[in-house]
Amino acid sequence: MKVLVVNCGSSSVKFQLVETDAESARAGTDRALAKGLVENIGGTAVLKLEVAGRKPVKETAEIPEHKIAVDRILDFVTHAENGVVRDRREIAAVGHRVVHGGERFKASALITDDVLEGIEACFDMAPLHNPPNVRGYRAVRAVLPDVPQVAVFDTSFHQSMPAEAYLYGLPYVLYERHGIRRYGFHGTSHRFVSARLAALLGRRADDPGLRLITCHLGNGCSVAAIRGGRSVDTSMGFTPLEGLVMGTRSGDLDPAVVLHAMEREEIGVREANALINKHGGLLGISGVSNDMRALLEAEDTNPRARLAVDVFCYRLRKYVAAYIGVLGGLDGLAFAGGIGENAPAIRARALAGLEGLGLSLDPSRNAGARGSEAEISPAVANARVFVVPTNEELLIARDTCAIVSAVAPYGGRDRGISAPADAFQATPVSASQES
Ligand code: ADP
Question: Which of 218, 287, 348, 351 is the most exposed place for a label (fewest CB within 10 A)?
Answer without folding.
Answer: 287
